[in-house]
Amino acid sequence: MPPPSRGSGPATGPFALPSGTTVRFVLLIAAVTAVTALVANSVSATLVNDADLPQLADYLDCLAAAADEAAARRAEDPSVFVPEPFEDGCHDPRGTAEWVPAAATGFLLLLILGAYLALPPWRIARRRYRPLTGMPELSATLTALVAETGVRARVTFLTEPLDPTIAALAFGRVGRRYVVLSGGLLALSAHDRAAFRAVVLHELAHIRNRDLDVGFLTLIVWRMCGPPVLAFAGLAFLLAPVLQGAVVVLVYAFAAQLGLLALLVTLLSRAVLRSRELYADARVCRWEGGGASLRRLFESQARAHAPQGPAAGRGGRGATGLLRAHPTPARRLAALEDDSALSRVSFWDLGAVGAVAAFVHQIVAQGPAGGGFRGGRLPDHFSVALAAGLLVTAAGTVVWRAVARGSALRVRAAGIGLGLGTGVVTVLRPSGLQMLATLGGKGLSYVLPYAALLCLAGWALVRWLVTVAEAWQPVVERARRPHMLSALVLTLSAAGLTTTLAYLLSLPSLVVYAASFIAPEAPGALVLVGSTVYLLGDRLSTVLLPILLTGALIPLLGTVLAGRRRDKGLGTGFGPPKPVGPLVVRLGVPAALAAAVLNLVLAVLDPFPEYAWLLLLALFGLAEVGAAVWATRDEASLRLVRGLVAVLGCGLLGALGWIVLVKSMTSCLPGGVPCGPLPDVGQLRVAVLAMTSTAVPAWLTFAAVDTLTTAARRRRRPPPPVPGPLHRPW
């Protein structure tokens, strides 16, 4: 057995945190739910609400004409009010049949439940499995194995004597499990008990891991939603050229969505099935204290199925590997050698997370039977909360497992996958394509800049999730319920990032509006940047402030708790437990007082009256940069997070200190108004807005300075000594 990998303790083993199988299965169910809702909404619009395609085409043509007319009026006179499209007499033929999505979902659940209950007896009758009789010694061995593994379910062993291969299969329903042994496996038990034991333990591991139902439910939902939805998408593509008008774009968007969802369901179902096999192997290795028997089996399988020609050496990677229901023997051997391979994060993993989260947001935001504006603001808020929770918790769980297990984690590739998955689905939504197709296609110029922005946001989120995992891992290592603690941390993170996700998902509509009515001649990239900055300035307290506080407090709280646990000798960490500087320096108090006094002097002198507020904010920003540099001059970990804390503390305390000094100068002098130096609620809000507006450029400046100085220090360090002839390692 190879030496255990990093984090192989009881609290950081492959089963300490939610497994990759669980995360992929949750994404699969979310994708299937989106498929059901999308198809139900489309069918209800035509069958239940009597909205045929000609009526829908007339409605979309009316919307396009209303938008063109509004843009023309706006171009002639910028003061003209631009009305909403549905205020120009355009009637949407789609009604509100709220019971249709619920009925479709309920019907699908009943079908899945019926298939789940009927599958075990149908399989036993169809394959003619027989009870294991006439072999008392083997029956006693199997009973002892069940007791040894701690499997509490009722397990019945069956045989398939006519199958000459070495195979076994576990299936069944809750409370009643079956394990089928092939004829070849029964023959193997006579001359290689170790290999026979490993195969049986693998099937019992599926029961112990509670992924038996996950596997069969995955097969059921894929067969119900994968090929049928893909065929439905192909039919929509064939139908679109026959139509005319703006409805063609809507049909193409509908077909593209269905095709992408069918592809997601297929790939996720295959990923779930491969993942559960690898985790069952890991459970056997834990039971056996090694994987020698499994290794011999996989090596023989690898030799028997070794590819010839150009395909040799690929190990099941590429497109064919993504469609496999079982991992290749080479992949299973690699997982036996290093179980951290179970937690590797790839571009495609987080791309699927982003795509499913965007689909969930889109479907839930549409409301009953499609029209999102009919459902009020509750569907919008609910859809964003669901999407943010799914995005952050799924991506965070995957990243956390990789950090805890020391697995390969390419942050840049994973972040780009997360951003692209979210962006592709957001741009391909029907309303987005409809806006792109109208107004001369001016909205097309924002697609690439928007994709670049989402890739940058995805990279930043993945990098921050790595920081959170590193900060909280020492606490999770000694927690009684690491699943619960990691889920709580990620849930709090999702709550703090909800408004930011809502802002990013709403940017396409707002940018297309600006490109159409406000700056029709400007390049799309310039419109995107201008709209992003303008909207951020308008939403300081709802977008910037939550993300700043979340980005600083979540990792810092984990570091503080990890430091306390290390002080008590309860865990290990990733760096020094506490920064060297005192608390007042870490909160930026000295720099805040200096900035408040200097701004008061400038307010009295008033050298540039026309630039007074700009100079005020600039001085606060410089003080925040200085506070961050001062607070991170030591070698403690989480420098960027601690710098952000110093920036926020200096900005808030400096603005409040300046307000107090100004009020004292104006109201507490002899002969003045009654003294009241303490800030009121309105002035406190002004201080928070001033802090938020200066924190982002100040922190970005500090991050750039810190990166450059860190790189310079590394270059100045002497290279490690090269061992000479007398110091070569033996």
Features:
730 residues; mainly alpha; four-stranded mixed beta sheet; 4 strands; 3% strand
Structural class: mainly alpha
SS strand fraction: under 5%
Give, in order, the helices and strands: HHHEHEEEHHHHHHHHHHHHHHHHHHHH
Question: Looking across the biggest beta sheet, what order are the strands in?
Answer: 1-2-4-3
The span between the termini is: 24 Å
Overall body shape = globular
Regions with little confidence, pLDDT below 50 for 5+ residues: 1-11, 308-315, 368-376, 565-578, 722-730
Report the C-alpha radius of gyration, rounded.
Answer: 31 Å
**Number of strand segments:** 4
Overall pLDDT, averaged? 77
For the largest beta-sheet, the strand count, sense and barrel status come to: 4 strands, mixed
As a percent range, the share of helical residues equals 55-70%
Multimeric state of these chains?
Answer: single chain
Number of helices: 24
Textual characterization of the structure:
With 730 residues, this protein is mostly helical. Helices cover 70% and strands 3% of the residues. The protein contains 24 helices and 4 strands. A hairpin with a 2-residue loop joins strand 3 (168-173) and strand 4. The longest helix is centred in the middle third of the chain and has 42 residues, at 247-288. The two termini are 24 Å apart. The relative contact order is 0.07. Residues 1-11, 308-315, 368-376, 565-578 and 722-730 have low confidence and may be disordered.
SSE topology sketch:
Layout lengths: L19 H29 L4 H24 L22 H29 L2 E2 L4 H14 L5 E6 L7 E6 L2 E7 H9 L1 H16 L3 H28 L7 H42 L3 H13 L14 H4 L6 H9 L9 H20 L10 H29 L5 H17 L2 H8 L9 H31 L4 H37 L5 H15 L1 H28 L15 H4 L2 H17 L6 H20 L7 H29 L13 H36 L14
Parallel strand pairs: 2-4
Antiparallel strand pairs: 1-2, 3-4
Helix pairs in contact: 1-3, 1-7, 1-8, 1-12, 4-6, 5-6, 6-8, 6-9, 7-8, 8-15, 9-11, 12-13, 12-14, 13-16, 13-17, 14-16, 16-17, 16-19, 17-18, 17-19, 19-23, 19-24, 21-22, 21-23, 22-23, 22-24, 23-24
